């Protein structure tokens, strides 16, 4: 059986186990991953190590962020801060333009913030609007998530675009400038415009983020609410800017690198929030810890599902699937920018990780960039757009969205997967238009 057929059969099996057999997604991932490992030729005695590595690497990068983010989100909701933030947004933009307000917030937050961190931080804000104003969750939330996704795939300092700039010998500043120009129409098309077709999707988001309704005099003030909720964003932005304007070395450099790590940012933010939205507002430490305990219970299953997605991704990585696919289409006679997009897109669909897709595609395209006579900054964006193509069941982002919004697989594909695909295609079209003028 060819590699592509094996990958396709595994993806079909995963969908059937979850949607038809009603198997827990974590168990389905384990079963399908082991099947894939055997069919793709990984020695049977090596499969347990691949499973453990997949879970370890995925959770190692996400468990602290998701856990602490859930605690912060639960505290923001239960303290009344989410209600206060929503009131301010509604007064400023009005209910008619609330989608656009959330989209702009997602874009600004998404530039300095790693995607998973931004997702965990912004979802409570989305849900507070949904519950308070009885608006459709997918319709309201997708524009903000589209903005987060675009910044993750297109713009430095995110891991994949930053690495692509280096690999393809592009210019960081120009890539960021072109990326912002490209991002704006892509987000508008995949966000507010596309979400108009999704108002009928029924979603009951996780109850952990449903804010209690407080009387006006019981709410924290607006400054406390916004600063505490957005403190992780502010910390990462500040620690990103400092090295650019102040030369650092030795202990000061080590401190900034330490404090800028997403996990450290989340921990520090939660400790500060424990005081500003907890102790400072009259709650006891026991009451605050009870809130945190409930938050962790609510995201435990999400962590297991994301871990399962990590196993399947690791199987595909260890078996060399991404390189096999990339090599098989490298010789296609098409426009270089389209070729980069296609390679990244194929790997993304099969492997699930946008970062893996982008870096693998760059490894194939990079050595032949000089012969292609193509702008390397645009190639970074083309590959970045391709790496976002059709997120589905082997992508941790797919499962985070599905579980947080409590959707069926069908509705997740109808909304999330299509949004990612629109972003990807719009990005490619934008790159090709820019190529005419640059």
Your description of this structure?
There is one protein chain. By secondary structure, the protein is an all-alpha fold. It has helices at residues 3-19, 25-39, 47-78, 81-93, 98-110, 115-133, 137-154, 159-167, 172-195, 222-229, 231-245, 250-260, 262-278, 285-318, 321-329, 336-351, 354-365, 369-372, 376-386, 396-405, 409-437. The protein has one domain (3-437). Helix 4 (81-93) packs across helix 6 (115-133), helix 5 runs parallel beside helix 7 and helix 7 runs antiparallel to helix 9 (172-195). This is Gluconate transporter. It holds the Pfam family GntP_permease.
What is the count of β-strands? Answer: 0
Please tell me the total number of domains. 1
Rg for CA atoms? 22 Å
**Helical residues, percent:** over 70%
Summarize the structure.
Helices cover 77% and strands 0% of the residues.
């Amino acid at each position: 059986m060819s590699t592509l057929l094996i990958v396709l059969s595994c993806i079909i099996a995963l969908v059937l186990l979850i949607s038809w057999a009603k198997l827990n997604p974590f168990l389905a991932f384990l079963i399908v991953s082991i099947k894939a490992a055997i069919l793709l030729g990984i020695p049977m005695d090596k499969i347990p190590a691949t499973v453990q590595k997949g879970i370890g690497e995925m959770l190692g990068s996400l468990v602290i962020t998701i856990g602490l983010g859930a605690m912060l989100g639960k505290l923001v909701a239960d303290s009344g801060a989410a209600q206060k933030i929503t009131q301010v947004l509604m007064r400023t933009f009005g209910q008619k333009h609330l989608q656009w307000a959330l989209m702009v917030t997602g874009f600004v937050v998404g530039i300095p913030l790693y995607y998973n961190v931004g997702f965990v931080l912004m979802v409570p804000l989305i849900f507070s609007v949904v519950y308070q104003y009885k608006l459709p969750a997918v319709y309201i939330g997708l524009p903000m998530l589209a903005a987060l996704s675009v910044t993750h795939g297109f713009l430095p300092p995110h891991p994949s675009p930053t690495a692509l700039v280096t690999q393809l010998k592009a210019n960081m500043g120009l890539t960021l400038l072109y990326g912002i120009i490209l991002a704006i129409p892509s987000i508008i098309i995949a966000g507010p415009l596309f979400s108009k077709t999704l108002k009928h999707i029924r979603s009951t988001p996780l109850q952990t983020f449903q804010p209690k309704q407080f009387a006006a005099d019981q709410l924290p003030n607006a400054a406390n609410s916004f600063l505490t909720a957005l403190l992780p964003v502010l910390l990462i932005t500040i620690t990103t800017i400092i090295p650019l304007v102040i030369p650092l070395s030795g202990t000061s450099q080590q401190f900034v690198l330490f404090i800028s790590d997403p996990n450290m940012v989340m921990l520090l933010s939660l400790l500060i929030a424990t005081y500003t939205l907890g102790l400072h507002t009259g709650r006891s430490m026991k009451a605050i810890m009870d809130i945190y305990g409930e938050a962790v219970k609510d995201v435990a299953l999400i962590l297991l599902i994301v871990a399962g997605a990590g196993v399947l991704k690791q199987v595909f990585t260890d078996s060399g699937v991404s390189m096999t696919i990339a090599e098989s289409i490298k010789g296609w006679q098409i426009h270089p920018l389209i070729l980069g997009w296609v390679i990244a897109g194929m790997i993304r669909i099969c492997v699930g990780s946008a970062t893996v897709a982008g870096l693998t595609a760059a490894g194939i395209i990079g050595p032949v960039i000089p012969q292609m006579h193509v702008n390397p900054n645009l190639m970074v964006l083309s590959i970045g757009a391709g790496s976002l193509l059709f997120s589905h069941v082997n992508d941790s982002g797919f499962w985070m969205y599905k579980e947080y919004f409590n959707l069926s697989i069908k509705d997740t594909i109808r909304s999330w997967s299509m949004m990612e695909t629109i972003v990807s295609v719009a990005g490619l079209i934008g790159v090709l238009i820019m190529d005419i003028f640059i």
